[in-house]
Design brief:
DNA polymerase, domain 1, alpha/beta, 6 strands, 2 domains
């Protein structure tokens, strides 16, 4: 199997193209700075992952910006910190400030010349639009949780993408799904018959950060530690 076997790359965005962990840590600072003793970065991220994934399963139609506001509220309650709802809402709107990984834009610009590029993301349209400005790439299609009415790793998200791509004459054999999160993306991508490429952004860190533990390691067809590595591998092929 070679990277050149595919016509379409479908991407997770947050954690893969956008550095959501740094974005979260920065935006959560007004809350976490109130804690004594201080918590580690990974402890904060794992608590965020727990509340985020729980709410996504319980309230699948809630807009991501609103869901993040509720995550902030739940974390404050966990830590016995009093916060206003406006503080929660402010956090929910922080996605627009989350930074892109340094290699994302350049790698996407290169890949755009060789593939159709598609987004499958657990956000709302407004949040992604702000992130897309940072990436600077016009994607061929954008499928977000707001459109679908559920959040990955729910089957509905990959079913929606499969249906939408099929309407454009694209079948699964032509698609490589590119993502960092094993929990949100690689487990369901495997379940739905997609070949996958793991962008292992956390290769030099322990644990799963802002994503839940996927349990058993799902099979992946390619693995790179960055988007730059993916682009360079394609150049060599």
């Amino acid at each position: 199997m070679k990277l050149t076997d595919f016509k379409v790359l479908t991407f997770d965005c947050y954690g893969t193209l956008i550095d959501w962990e740094q974005g979260m840590i920065t935006a959560l600072a007004p809350l976490t700075e109130k804690l004594n003793p201080k918590l580690s970065r990974d402890t904060i991220l794992q608590m965020h992952a727990h509340y985020e994934s729980t709410l996504q399963a319980q309230t699948p139609t809630m807009l991501y910006s609103q869901l993040l506001a509720t995550v902030y509220k739940r974390m404050a309650e966990e830590w016995n910190v009093t916060v206003s709802w406006q503080e929660c809402v402010h956090y929910g709107q922080s996605v627009k400030d989350w930074p892109a990984f340094e290699d994302s834009s350049q790698a996407l610009a290169y890949l755009k010349a060789h593939y159709k590029l598609v987004i499958l993301s657990n956000v709302d349209n407004a949040s992604f639009a702000a992130s897309n400005e940072k990436l600077g790439i016009p994607f061929d299609a954008v499928y977000v949780a707001e459109d679908i009415g559920s959040y990955k790793p729910a089957d509905a998200n990959f079913e929606y993408m499969t249906k939408m791509l099929a309407q454009r004459g694209i079948n699964k054999s032509q698609v490589l799904h590119v993502a960092e999160s094993l929990f949100h993306d690689h487990v369901p991508a495997n379940r739905h018959g997609y070949k996958s490429c793991w962008i292992y952004r956390r290769h030099d860190q322990n644990g799963f950060g802002a994503t839940m533990d996927p349990g058993e390691m799902p099979p992946v067809d390619f693995r790179f530690n960055s988007m730059a590595e993916l682009a360079n591998a394609h150049r060599k092929s």
